[in-house]
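User: Just a sanity check before I run the rest of the batch. Below are the C-alpha coordinates for the first item. I only need the designed sequence back.
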Protein backbone atom coordinates (compact mmCIF):
# COMPACT_ATOMS: atom_id res chain seq x y z
CA UNK A 1 0.00 0.00 0.00
CA UNK A 2 1.35 3.42 -0.95
CA UNK A 3 1.45 5.90 1.91
CA UNK A 4 -0.33 9.19 1.59
CA UNK A 5 1.85 12.22 0.95
CA UNK A 6 2.16 14.93 3.57
CA UNK A 7 0.96 17.31 0.87
CA UNK A 8 -1.84 17.14 -1.67
CA UNK A 9 -0.48 16.80 -5.18
CA UNK A 10 2.80 15.18 -4.10
CA UNK A 11 3.52 11.47 -4.48
CA UNK A 12 3.31 9.43 -1.28
CA UNK A 13 6.25 7.29 -0.20
CA UNK A 14 6.54 3.84 -1.77
CA UNK A 15 5.20 1.03 0.42
CA UNK A 16 7.64 -0.16 3.07
CA UNK A 17 7.24 -3.73 1.73
CA UNK A 18 9.08 -2.66 -1.42
CA UNK A 19 12.10 -1.71 0.68
CA UNK A 20 12.34 -5.33 1.81
CA UNK A 21 11.49 -6.97 -1.53
CA UNK A 22 13.49 -4.77 -3.85
CA UNK A 23 15.50 -2.16 -2.00
CA UNK A 24 17.10 -0.63 -5.10
CA UNK A 25 13.65 -0.07 -6.65
CA UNK A 26 12.48 1.47 -3.38
CA UNK A 27 15.37 3.93 -3.16
CA UNK A 28 15.14 4.77 -6.85
CA UNK A 29 11.52 5.74 -6.37
CA UNK A 30 12.42 7.82 -3.32
CA UNK A 31 14.94 9.77 -5.38
CA UNK A 32 12.76 10.12 -8.48
CA UNK A 33 9.50 10.93 -6.71
CA UNK A 34 10.49 12.69 -3.50
CA UNK A 35 13.32 14.98 -4.62
CA UNK A 36 13.62 17.73 -7.22
CA UNK A 37 17.09 16.47 -8.16
CA UNK A 38 17.58 16.11 -11.92
CA UNK A 39 18.96 12.81 -13.19
CA UNK A 40 22.23 14.41 -14.35
CA UNK A 41 23.26 15.58 -10.88
CA UNK A 42 25.36 13.21 -8.75
CA UNK A 43 25.21 14.98 -5.40
CA UNK A 44 27.43 13.51 -2.69
CA UNK A 45 28.13 16.55 -0.55
CA UNK A 46 25.36 16.28 2.04
CA UNK A 47 27.98 16.86 4.71
CA UNK A 48 28.22 20.47 3.55
CA UNK A 49 24.53 20.98 2.78
CA UNK A 50 21.73 18.46 2.48
CA UNK A 51 18.95 18.41 -0.10
CA UNK A 52 15.41 19.36 0.89
CA UNK A 53 12.89 16.83 -0.44
CA UNK A 54 9.64 17.88 -2.14
CA UNK A 55 7.44 17.85 1.01
CA UNK A 56 9.91 20.21 2.70
CA UNK A 57 9.98 22.62 -0.23
CA UNK A 58 6.17 22.45 -0.32
CA UNK A 59 5.91 23.21 3.41
CA UNK A 60 8.17 26.24 3.06
CA UNK A 61 6.35 27.65 0.07
CA UNK A 62 2.91 26.93 1.52
CA UNK A 63 3.83 28.78 4.69
CA UNK A 64 5.21 31.71 2.72
CA UNK A 65 1.94 31.92 0.80
CA UNK A 66 -0.11 31.68 3.99
CA UNK A 67 2.01 34.32 5.64
CA UNK A 68 1.74 36.64 2.65
CA UNK A 69 -2.05 36.31 3.00
CA UNK A 70 -1.76 36.74 6.78
CA UNK A 71 -4.01 33.77 7.32
CA UNK A 72 -2.64 33.34 10.84
CA UNK A 73 -3.23 35.56 13.87
CA UNK A 74 0.41 35.63 14.97
CA UNK A 75 3.45 37.18 13.31
CA UNK A 76 4.72 34.79 10.65
CA UNK A 77 8.30 34.89 11.93
CA UNK A 78 10.61 33.47 14.57
CA UNK A 79 13.11 35.36 16.71
CA UNK A 80 10.82 36.61 19.49
CA UNK A 81 8.51 33.60 19.77
CA UNK A 82 9.39 30.46 21.70
CA UNK A 83 8.37 28.22 18.79
CA UNK A 84 7.23 25.52 21.21
CA UNK A 85 5.67 23.23 18.59
CA UNK A 86 8.67 23.36 16.28
CA UNK A 87 11.12 22.86 19.14
CA UNK A 88 9.02 20.01 20.49
CA UNK A 89 9.04 18.23 17.11
CA UNK A 90 12.82 18.57 16.92
CA UNK A 91 13.40 17.73 20.59
CA UNK A 92 11.34 14.54 20.24
CA UNK A 93 13.27 13.54 17.16
CA UNK A 94 16.74 14.16 18.55
CA UNK A 95 15.91 12.93 22.03
CA UNK A 96 16.02 15.75 24.57
CA UNK A 97 13.55 17.80 26.63
CA UNK A 98 12.10 20.75 24.74
CA UNK A 99 13.24 23.13 27.51
CA UNK A 100 16.85 22.25 26.65
CA UNK A 101 16.59 23.05 22.95
CA UNK A 102 16.89 26.35 21.06
CA UNK A 103 16.53 26.93 17.33
CA UNK A 104 19.36 28.73 15.56
CA UNK A 105 20.28 29.44 11.96
CA UNK A 106 22.99 26.80 11.86
CA UNK A 107 25.65 25.02 13.89
CA UNK A 108 28.10 27.90 13.46
CA UNK A 109 25.76 30.24 15.30
CA UNK A 110 25.11 27.69 18.04
CA UNK A 111 28.86 27.20 18.52
CA UNK A 112 29.34 30.96 18.72
CA UNK A 113 26.67 31.27 21.42
CA UNK A 114 28.44 28.72 23.61
CA UNK A 115 32.00 29.87 22.93
CA UNK A 116 31.19 33.52 23.58
CA UNK A 117 28.68 32.96 26.37
CA UNK A 118 30.65 31.04 29.00
CA UNK A 119 32.46 32.85 31.79
CA UNK A 120 36.10 31.95 31.19
CA UNK A 121 39.09 33.93 32.39
CA UNK A 122 42.68 34.28 31.23
CA UNK A 123 44.52 31.01 31.74
CA UNK A 124 41.41 28.81 31.61
CA UNK A 125 41.87 26.06 29.08
CA UNK A 126 39.62 24.80 26.29
CA UNK A 127 40.61 21.56 24.59
CA UNK A 128 39.65 20.80 21.01
CA UNK A 129 40.82 18.12 18.59
CA UNK A 130 42.97 18.94 15.58
CA UNK A 131 40.07 17.85 13.33
CA UNK A 132 37.61 20.62 14.15
CA UNK A 133 35.66 22.67 11.63
CA UNK A 134 36.59 26.36 11.24
CA UNK A 135 33.22 27.15 12.88
CA UNK A 136 34.64 25.70 16.10
CA UNK A 137 38.18 27.01 15.77
CA UNK A 138 37.05 30.58 15.01
CA UNK A 139 34.96 31.41 18.09
CA UNK A 140 37.43 29.87 20.53
CA UNK A 141 40.20 31.76 18.73
CA UNK A 142 38.34 35.00 19.44
CA UNK A 143 38.19 34.16 23.15
CA UNK A 144 41.86 33.33 23.11
CA UNK A 145 42.84 36.71 21.66
CA UNK A 146 40.23 38.70 23.51
CA UNK A 147 40.29 37.14 26.96
CA UNK A 148 43.53 35.23 27.12
CA UNK A 149 42.08 31.74 27.45
CA UNK A 150 44.31 28.87 26.34
CA UNK A 151 43.08 26.73 23.44
CA UNK A 152 44.86 23.42 23.08
CA UNK A 153 44.47 20.96 20.25
CA UNK A 154 44.73 17.23 20.73
CA UNK A 155 45.87 15.35 17.63
CA UNK A 156 43.60 12.47 16.65
CA UNK A 157 45.39 9.48 15.13
CA UNK A 158 44.53 8.84 11.49
CA UNK A 159 43.43 6.14 11.41
CA UNK A 160 42.64 5.40 15.07
CA UNK A 161 42.89 1.89 16.52
CA UNK A 162 39.39 1.94 18.01
CA UNK A 163 36.94 4.28 19.79
CA UNK A 164 38.62 3.54 23.12
CA UNK A 165 41.89 5.04 21.91
CA UNK A 166 40.13 8.31 21.05
CA UNK A 167 38.33 8.42 24.40
CA UNK A 168 41.59 7.79 26.28
CA UNK A 169 43.36 10.55 24.37
CA UNK A 170 40.74 13.20 25.05
CA UNK A 171 40.09 12.24 28.64
CA UNK A 172 43.82 11.94 29.27
CA UNK A 173 44.38 15.44 27.89
CA UNK A 174 42.35 17.07 30.69
CA UNK A 175 44.60 19.11 32.94
CA UNK A 176 44.13 21.23 36.08
CA UNK A 177 43.14 24.35 34.10
CA UNK A 178 40.82 22.62 31.61
CA UNK A 179 37.31 24.04 31.74
CA UNK A 180 35.77 22.84 28.47
CA UNK A 181 36.24 19.87 26.13
CA UNK A 182 34.95 21.06 22.79
CA UNK A 183 34.92 18.46 20.02
CA UNK A 184 32.99 17.10 17.06
CA UNK A 185 30.79 14.05 17.50
CA UNK A 186 31.59 13.25 13.86
CA UNK A 187 34.59 14.99 12.34
CA UNK A 188 34.23 17.04 9.21
CA UNK A 189 37.67 16.00 7.97
CA UNK A 190 37.40 12.22 7.99
CA UNK A 191 33.85 11.35 9.06
CA UNK A 192 35.12 9.69 12.23
CA UNK A 193 32.46 9.06 14.90
CA UNK A 194 33.84 9.83 18.35
CA UNK A 195 32.79 7.93 21.51
CA UNK A 196 30.90 10.97 22.77
CA UNK A 197 29.20 9.53 25.84
CA UNK A 198 32.33 7.97 27.23
CA UNK A 199 34.23 11.24 26.83
CA UNK A 200 31.44 13.40 28.28
CA UNK A 201 30.87 11.13 31.26
CA UNK A 202 34.55 11.11 32.20
CA UNK A 203 34.86 14.88 31.68
CA UNK A 204 31.89 15.57 33.92
CA UNK A 205 33.38 13.40 36.62
CA UNK A 206 36.42 15.69 36.49
CA UNK A 207 34.28 18.86 36.61
CA UNK A 208 34.94 19.77 32.97
CA UNK A 209 32.15 21.03 30.68
CA UNK A 210 31.59 19.27 27.37
CA UNK A 211 30.52 20.89 24.14
CA UNK A 212 29.78 18.62 21.18
CA UNK A 213 29.71 19.91 17.64
CA UNK A 214 26.95 17.65 16.36
CA UNK A 215 26.65 19.27 12.92
CA UNK A 216 27.06 15.86 11.26
CA UNK A 217 25.27 13.76 13.82
CA UNK A 218 21.54 14.51 13.58
CA UNK A 219 20.13 12.47 10.73
CA UNK A 220 23.38 10.74 9.87
CA UNK A 221 23.49 8.31 12.79
CA UNK A 222 20.76 7.25 15.21
CA UNK A 223 21.29 8.56 18.75
CA UNK A 224 19.50 10.49 21.51
CA UNK A 225 21.10 13.71 22.70
CA UNK A 226 20.18 13.08 26.35
CA UNK A 227 22.02 9.74 26.23
CA UNK A 228 25.28 11.48 25.35
CA UNK A 229 25.56 13.25 28.71
CA UNK A 230 27.04 16.37 27.11
CA UNK A 231 26.46 19.89 28.43
CA UNK A 232 26.06 21.67 25.11
CA UNK A 233 25.54 20.54 21.55
CA UNK A 234 25.34 22.40 18.26
CA UNK A 235 23.60 20.99 15.20
CA UNK A 236 22.61 21.74 11.60
CA UNK A 237 19.42 19.90 10.56
CA UNK A 238 19.99 21.30 7.06
CA UNK A 239 22.82 18.82 6.56
CA UNK A 240 21.43 15.34 7.18
CA UNK A 241 17.89 15.94 8.42
CA UNK A 242 16.26 17.22 5.21
CA UNK A 243 15.71 20.75 6.55
CA UNK A 244 16.08 23.75 4.24
CA UNK A 245 19.28 25.82 4.57
CA UNK A 246 19.10 28.08 7.62
CA UNK A 247 17.94 25.58 10.27
CA UNK A 248 20.26 24.99 13.22
CA UNK A 249 19.94 23.90 16.82
CA UNK A 250 21.52 24.46 20.19
CA UNK A 251 21.13 22.00 23.06
CA UNK A 252 21.87 23.36 26.54
CA UNK A 253 21.55 20.96 29.44
CA UNK A 254 19.19 22.36 32.08
CA UNK A 255 21.90 22.64 34.76
CA UNK A 256 24.11 24.62 32.39
CA UNK A 257 21.54 27.20 31.33
CA UNK A 258 22.37 29.72 34.01
CA UNK A 259 26.08 29.45 33.22
CA UNK A 260 25.58 30.49 29.60
CA UNK A 261 25.11 34.16 28.68
CA UNK A 262 23.01 34.80 25.57
CA UNK A 263 24.88 36.82 22.93
CA UNK A 264 22.10 38.41 20.89
CA UNK A 265 18.90 38.92 22.82
CA UNK A 266 15.86 41.04 23.69
CA UNK A 267 13.96 41.67 26.94
CA UNK A 268 13.21 38.46 28.78
CA UNK A 269 16.70 37.03 28.30
CA UNK A 270 17.06 36.41 32.03
CA UNK A 271 13.74 34.64 32.50
CA UNK A 272 14.62 31.06 33.51
CA UNK A 273 11.08 29.91 32.67
CA UNK A 274 11.95 30.35 28.99
CA UNK A 275 14.54 27.57 29.27
CA UNK A 276 16.81 27.30 26.26
CA UNK A 277 14.44 29.57 24.29
CA UNK A 278 16.41 32.42 25.90
CA UNK A 279 19.14 31.66 23.39
CA UNK A 280 16.98 32.17 20.31
CA UNK A 281 15.71 35.72 20.88
CA UNK A 282 17.53 37.07 17.85
CA UNK A 283 14.91 39.28 16.20
CA UNK A 284 12.73 38.74 13.16
CA UNK A 285 13.55 35.67 11.11
CA UNK A 286 12.06 33.44 8.46
CA UNK A 287 9.75 30.97 10.13
CA UNK A 288 8.90 29.22 6.86
CA UNK A 289 12.26 27.48 7.13
CA UNK A 290 11.30 25.81 10.40
CA UNK A 291 7.96 24.79 8.91
CA UNK A 292 10.14 23.04 6.34
CA UNK A 293 12.29 21.52 9.07
CA UNK A 294 9.23 19.99 10.74
CA UNK A 295 8.14 18.54 7.38
CA UNK A 296 11.67 17.13 7.01
CA UNK A 297 11.36 15.39 10.38
CA UNK A 298 8.04 13.89 9.29
CA UNK A 299 9.65 12.75 6.08
CA UNK A 300 12.52 11.09 7.98
CA UNK A 301 10.10 9.43 10.40
CA UNK A 302 7.92 8.14 7.56
CA UNK A 303 10.88 6.39 5.98
CA UNK A 304 12.34 5.43 9.36
CA UNK A 305 15.64 6.66 10.84
CA UNK A 306 17.01 3.11 11.09
CA UNK A 307 16.21 2.38 7.47
CA UNK A 308 17.83 5.65 6.46
CA UNK A 309 20.94 4.90 8.48
CA UNK A 310 21.22 1.39 7.05
CA UNK A 311 21.00 2.74 3.51
CA UNK A 312 23.40 5.62 3.83
CA UNK A 313 25.95 3.51 5.66
CA UNK A 314 25.66 0.84 2.97
CA UNK A 315 26.39 3.50 0.33
CA UNK A 316 29.31 4.83 2.38
CA UNK A 317 30.73 1.31 2.76
CA UNK A 318 30.45 0.92 -0.99
CA UNK A 319 32.43 4.14 -1.51
CA UNK A 320 34.94 3.06 1.15
CA UNK A 321 35.60 -0.29 -0.55
CA UNK A 322 35.95 1.35 -3.97
CA UNK A 323 38.44 3.84 -2.53
CA UNK A 324 40.37 1.06 -0.85
CA UNK A 325 40.85 -0.69 -4.20
CA UNK A 326 42.03 2.43 -6.00
CA UNK A 327 45.84 2.66 -6.27
CA UNK A 328 47.33 5.90 -4.94
CA UNK A 329 44.43 6.85 -2.66
CA UNK A 330 44.91 7.20 1.06
CA UNK A 331 41.74 6.53 3.03
CA UNK A 332 41.31 8.85 6.00
CA UNK A 333 38.09 7.34 7.36
CA UNK A 334 38.60 4.51 9.88
CA UNK A 335 37.81 1.02 8.60
CA UNK A 336 35.44 0.27 11.45
CA UNK A 337 31.64 0.35 11.04
CA UNK A 338 31.28 1.80 14.54
CA UNK A 339 33.44 4.74 13.56
CA UNK A 340 31.83 6.07 10.40
CA UNK A 341 28.30 6.69 9.20
CA UNK A 342 28.01 8.19 5.74
CA UNK A 343 31.14 10.31 5.36
CA UNK A 344 34.16 8.81 3.62
CA UNK A 345 37.33 10.85 3.09
CA UNK A 346 40.54 10.20 1.21
CA UNK A 347 43.40 12.07 -0.35
CA UNK A 348 45.51 11.53 -3.45
CA UNK A 349 48.64 12.80 -5.18
CA UNK A 350 48.31 16.51 -6.15
CA UNK A 351 48.60 15.96 -9.92
CA UNK A 352 45.72 13.49 -9.90
CA UNK A 353 43.74 15.85 -7.65
CA UNK A 354 43.62 18.62 -10.27
CA UNK A 355 42.54 16.40 -13.14
CA UNK A 356 39.95 14.61 -11.03
CA UNK A 357 38.45 17.91 -9.85
CA UNK A 358 38.08 19.16 -13.42
CA UNK A 359 36.40 15.93 -14.56
CA UNK A 360 33.99 15.99 -11.61
CA UNK A 361 32.88 19.50 -12.47
CA UNK A 362 32.35 18.47 -16.10
CA UNK A 363 30.27 15.45 -15.10
CA UNK A 364 28.26 17.23 -12.41
CA UNK A 365 29.68 15.07 -9.66
CA UNK A 366 29.54 17.11 -6.46
CA UNK A 367 31.70 15.98 -3.59
CA UNK A 368 33.71 18.05 -1.15
CA UNK A 369 37.17 18.87 -2.43
CA UNK A 370 39.60 20.89 -0.41
CA UNK A 371 42.94 19.49 0.68
CA UNK A 372 41.15 16.13 0.70
CA UNK A 373 38.06 14.54 -0.83
CA UNK A 374 34.95 13.71 1.09
CA UNK A 375 32.03 11.68 -0.23
CA UNK A 376 28.82 12.07 1.72
CA UNK A 377 25.88 10.12 0.37
CA UNK A 378 22.27 10.39 1.40
CA UNK A 379 19.16 8.45 0.47
CA UNK A 380 18.94 10.16 -2.92
CA UNK A 381 22.44 8.95 -3.82
CA UNK A 382 22.37 6.21 -6.44
CA UNK A 383 24.89 3.37 -6.50
CA UNK A 384 25.55 4.57 -10.09
CA UNK A 385 26.67 7.93 -8.69
CA UNK A 386 29.36 6.14 -6.70
CA UNK A 387 30.31 4.10 -9.78
CA UNK A 388 30.61 7.27 -11.82
CA UNK A 389 32.76 8.89 -9.16
CA UNK A 390 35.25 6.05 -9.08
CA UNK A 391 35.28 5.58 -12.86
CA UNK A 392 36.16 9.26 -13.06
CA UNK A 393 38.90 8.82 -10.50
CA UNK A 394 40.32 5.92 -12.48
CA UNK A 395 40.29 8.00 -15.66
CA UNK A 396 42.04 10.86 -13.90
CA UNK A 397 44.71 8.46 -12.64
CA UNK A 398 45.28 6.81 -16.01
CA UNK A 399 45.47 10.11 -17.88
CA UNK A 400 48.64 11.14 -16.01
C1 LIG B 1 31.75 19.56 12.00
C2 LIG B 1 31.11 20.82 11.48
N1 LIG B 1 30.74 21.76 12.36
C3 LIG B 1 30.13 22.88 11.97
C4 LIG B 1 29.87 23.12 10.64
C5 LIG B 1 29.18 24.38 10.27
O1 LIG B 1 27.89 24.09 9.84
P1 LIG B 1 26.93 25.24 9.36
O2 LIG B 1 27.52 25.82 8.13
O3 LIG B 1 25.64 24.54 9.13
O4 LIG B 1 26.87 26.23 10.45
C6 LIG B 1 30.24 22.19 9.69
C7 LIG B 1 29.96 22.43 8.26
O5 LIG B 1 30.28 21.69 7.38
C8 LIG B 1 30.89 21.01 10.12
O6 LIG B 1 31.30 20.09 9.24
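Assistant: Here's the designed sequence for the first item:
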Amino acid sequence: MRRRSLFAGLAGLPAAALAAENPEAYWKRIRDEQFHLPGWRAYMNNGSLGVAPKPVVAAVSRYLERSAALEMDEYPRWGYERMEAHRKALADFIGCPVAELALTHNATEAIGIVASGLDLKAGDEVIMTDQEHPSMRGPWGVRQQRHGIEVRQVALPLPPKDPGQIADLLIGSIGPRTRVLSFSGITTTTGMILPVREICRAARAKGVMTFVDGAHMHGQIPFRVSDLECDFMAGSPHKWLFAPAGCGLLYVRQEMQERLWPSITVDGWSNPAAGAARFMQVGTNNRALFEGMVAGLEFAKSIGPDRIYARIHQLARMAFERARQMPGLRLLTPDDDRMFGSLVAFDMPPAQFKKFGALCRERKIWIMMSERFRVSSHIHTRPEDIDLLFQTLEEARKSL
